[in-house]
Amino acid sequence: MRAPIGDFDEAIPLTGALDLLPAPVAEAARGWRGTVPVERLLYVDSDPEKADTAVFVATYGEDLAEASANCVVVAGRRGGETTLAAALVPAATRLDVNGAVRRHLGVRKASFAPHETAVRETGMEYGGITPFGLPAGWPVLVDAAVVAMDHVLVGSGARRGKLIVPGAALAELPGVEVLEGLGRRPE
User: Fold this and answer.
1) What is the DSSP annotation of the chain?
2) pLDDT tens digits, 143-178
3) In this predicted model, what pLDDT tens digit does every residue of 16-48 receive, in sequence order?
4) How confident is the model over 85-121, as pLDDT tens digits?
5) Comparing C-alpha atoms, which of 18, 128, 121, 37 is closest to residue 75?
6) What is the distance in angstroms between the CA of the first residue and the CA of the last residue of the chain?
7) Measured between alpha carbons, how far is 88 from 95 in angstroms, rounded to an integer?
8) CB crowding 9-47: b at 16 or more within 10 Å, else e
9) Which part of the chain is the YbaK/aminoacyl-tRNA synthetase-associated domain (predicted)?
10) Would you say residue 185 has pLDDT above 90?
């Protein structure tokens, strides 16, 4: 099957790629219950050495610059308590971690979680973290601009491979809260 965005050799339904995915992502695919049919959730193979957004776009298609979203793990602190959450924003923007994220989580301080924490807590590889298969109970903050996209390229949970999904599917993931202005264009 041909991918709806980018220049990939092949796109396969996510359920046909379960053995290529980290365990929590494969489990999320197996348990998909959203209104977007699971067949529209796709996996595309990619070179793990080219996983960073700018290199990925140069290799697999300039159209991906506006169709990609980055998922990051954030840590919010208040009164000695730490809350972990994930945030998904268009790749062309920067996460407003000290504004929108901090306010929404109701924490005094918010920052990007350390690499080791993100990897340990998600069971995914750093640089490939995806909103699919995140730990139960985590807030998953998704920029409304991502949900509005016809097709979005996100991580697969590993540096090798990516997922292409309708933006509407992201709003149906467990723990998702869709927010306006979560990502801001660099000035």
Assistant:
1) ---SSS--S-EEEGGG-GGGS-HHHHHHHHT--SSS-GGG-EEE---GGG-SHHHHHHHH-GGGGTTBEEEEEEEEEETTEEEEEEEEEETTSEE-IIIIIHHHHT-SEEEEPPHHHHHHHHTS-TT---STTPPTT--EEEEHHHHT-SSEEEE-SSSS-EEEE-HHHHTTSTTEEEETTSEE---
2) 999 999 999 999 999 999 999 999 999 999 999 999
3) 999 999 999 999 999 999 999 999 999 999 998
4) 999 999 999 999 999 999 999 999 999 999 999 999 9
5) 121
6) 39
7) 8
8) eebeebeebeebbbebbbebbeebebebeeebbbbbbbe
9) 51-172
10) no
Place of tokens 């790629």: 17
